[in-house]
Specification:
- The complex is a heterodimer of chains A (about 300) and B (about 300).
- Chain A is an alpha/beta fold and about 300 residues long.
- Chain A contains ten helices and twelve strands.
- Chain B is an all-alpha fold and about 300 residues long.
- Chain B contains eleven helices and two strands, in the order H-H-H-H-H-H-H-H-E-E-H-H-H.
- Chain B has a two-stranded antiparallel ribbon with strand order 1-2.
- Chain B starts with a helix and ends in a 5-residue tail after the last helix.
- Classes of the chains: A alpha/beta (about 300), B mainly alpha (about 300).
- The interface between A and B is large, with 47 and 43 residues.
Chain lengths: ~300, ~300
């Protein structure tokens, strides 16, 4: 999708979200995540190409499939002069295929699931940031959905709220709904997502399961010993690469080697092993590796 | 692929739409509630209601001599003391200059730009409310507002006139006298004419509203448009463009106060309003369909 200024916001990405998964959509600021989500929801028109969502091609019109999609994009937006319940009633009134016989019960149920039932009749302008966020999620829960697109769902929530949303997302996924979560919080993504897609300057630089992302990074073996040179020699003999020996600490790229075999070999050679551990790269390190170290936003 | 898996968790199959009219009425009802129950708009309607009452009080205290007053609104002023119905006409005439267009500019500016400014436009469109469906609902709401505001002004003018002055058979501008019922019928027709004139202004407001996220910008633009149009309409050097100005036919409803009714003048006015509605409606439609919603 190319902006009028000529800037390429999203460059032909091939998103593949498996049904029933919880897909984490990651990327630095300005990478094109929100533009992609807006395109999926029909808010922004792609300048070229198309996509399929829930079996429907976008060119055939999204109005038929959007009732099956719940969305929270770039923060909740409601009327300050209406109460939480009235706001949800308005959202439901705008739905061209809502079930008219269950309106009050569906609204109450949605409010209950996000914990806002007690504050439902307060004006939206009186809500705290967390309550506003919860109302946004409640709007997407007004009817059963096949797909939920959540842009930073835990933004502004206290730890209890964050936990609740996390378990809510797990519940929703367990019901069979596919959840597409866009987030900066890597720890969160690690906890709830099954699949991950990473955006960087308009391109999808990685897509796959969380396990696949983790395995991209190289585990290293870390040995604490008084005989650094001896340990380094053993590791070299075993065929480990990228050995670095420091003061009392030796590390090398683990590769396919089994740590217990290395330990056995070290002990057999007589190298005193004070400590041995396998270090996996953190998700943050992997993310930065994929998207670049720079602090400045790209263009 | 079995139907069950195509329908997914929700059991929803595309094309399953029970009674679209009922759903549209739901959205329309929600829209009317949002506009007519909003405190700020209620305050505005209160001002509109108070104006004819104030005019009535002023006329009562400072009763103008029968037959006095010049042309334009002045024509009605002289008749008020004799027949309270003319207070209603006078109120419509006076408020049509600025206050009624102001109210319409607020509501039409708010219609799309206000929603964009709040961000609720994206909330509604992802429901999905449907871009065209939403635009049509907004315009229907604007038209209802125009009629409601006109009814409020005319109704309260009539009530105040009936309280302060005698009410009876109405003497038309052409000199003939008709019964009170016929006179009230003429008043109703005039009210409709004014409401349609305001609806045309509302269409311009709706079109401008689709271009911005600031409702106040639309309000200002509409007011400037009305004032400039009224000024140009008074300048005889540019008489050639007069029939094309939006406000030119606003006050032609004196044609409805003649026996027989001057239908030619009335139709001329209605045609002007229809043209504005069609042109600016098309602009709003095109813009709404093609715009990238970034609010």
């Amino acid at each position: 999708m190319r902006f009028r200024s000529g800037q390429l916001a999203v460059d032909h990405i091939a998103l593949a979200v498996p049904p029933g998964s919880v897909y984490g959509f990651l990327g630095p600021n300005g990478s094109g995540k929100t533009t992609t989500i807006r395109m999926l929801l029909g808010l922004v028109h792609p300048t070229a190409g198309t996509f399929r969502m829930l079996g429907t091609d976008a060119r055939d019109g999204l109005d038929a499939v959007l009732p099956r999609v719940g969305a929270l994009v770039e923060g909740p937006a409601f009327y300050p002069f209406l109460s939480g319940r009235q706001n949800l009633a308005r959202c439901d009134a705008a739905d061209p295929s809502a079930d008219l016989s269950t309106v009050p019960s569906r609204i109450d149920q949605a409010l209950d699931r996000v914990g806002l039932l007690a504050a439902a009749d307060k004006r939206y302008r009186a809500y705290s940031l967390g309550m506003k966020q919860r109302l946004g999620i409640a709007a997407s829960l007004l009817r059963p959905r096949d797909l939920m697109i959540l842009d930073e769902p835990t933004n502004g929530l206290d730890p209890q709220g964050t936990r609740e949303i996390r378990s809510l997302v797990k519940q929703i996924a367990a019901d069979g709904t596919t959840v597409f979560v866009s987030s900066h919080l890597l720890a969160e993504v690690e906890q709830i997502c099954t699949h991950v897609g990473v955006m960087s300057t308009g391109k999808l630089v990685f897509q796959g399961t969380l396990a696949e992302l983790r395995s991209r990074g190289e585990s290293r073996i870390l040995i604490r010993t008084t005989d650094a040179t001896g340990a380094a020699e053993v590791l070299g003999r075993l065929g480990l690469a990228d050995i670095s020996a420091g003061d009392g600490l030796v590390s090398a790229r683990l590769g396919e080697h089994a740590p217990e075999k290395i330990n056995a070999e070290l002990v057999r050679t007589g190298v005193p092993v004070a400590g041995l551990e396998t270090v996996r790269p953190s998700l943050e390190d992997l993310f930065v590796e994929l998207t670049g170290e720079g602090f400045d936003v790209n263009g | 692929m079995s139907t069950a898996s195509a329908a997914g968790v929700t059991g929803f199959t595309p094309g399953q739409r029970a009674a679209p009219i009922r759903h549209w009425l739901r959205l329309f009802g929600s829209e009317l509630r949002n506009v007519f129950l909003r405190p700020r708009n209620l305050a505005m309607l209160a001002v509109l209601a108070g104006a004819p009452v104030l005019l009535g009080v002023v006329m009562r205290v400072n009763t103008p001599a029968p037959g006095s007053g010049g042309d334009g609104a002045g024509v009605f002023v002289g008749e008020i003391a004799g027949n309270g119905v003319f207070l209603s006409l006078f109120a419509l005439y006076v408020l049509q200059t600025v206050l009624l267009p102001l109210a319409v500019s607020v509501v039409s500016g708010d219609s799309v730009a206000g929603e964009a400014g709040l961000g609720t436009l994206r909330t509604l469109l992802t429901v999905p409310a449907g871009r065209i469906r939403l635009l049509a609902t907004k315009y229907a709401m604007i038209v209802v507002f125009c009629f409601a505001a006109t009814l409020l002004v005319a109704g309260l003018g009539l009530l105040t006139g009936a309280i302060f002055f005698p009410v009876g058979p109405v003497t038309l501008l052409s000199g003939d006298t008709v019964s009170l019922a016929a006179g009230l019928g003429r008043l109703a027709l005039i009210g409709c004419y004014v409401a349609i004139a305001l609806s045309a202004l509302g269409a311009i407001g709706l079109a401008l509203s689709t271009f911005t996220q600031h409702a106040i910008a639309v309000m200002a633009a509409i007011l400037v448009l009305v004032i400039v149009s009224e000024i140009l309409d008074a300048v005889s050097q540019v008489a050639v463009i007069h029939p094309y100005l939006p406000t030119h036919f606003w006050f032609s409803f004196d044609a409805l106060l003649r026996m027989p009714i001057d239908w030619w003048q009335v139709m001329h006015g209605l045609a002007s309003f229809a043209a504005y509605i069609v042109i600016f409606g098309a602009v709003a439609l095109t813009r709404m369909r093609r715009a990238n919603i970034t609010c």
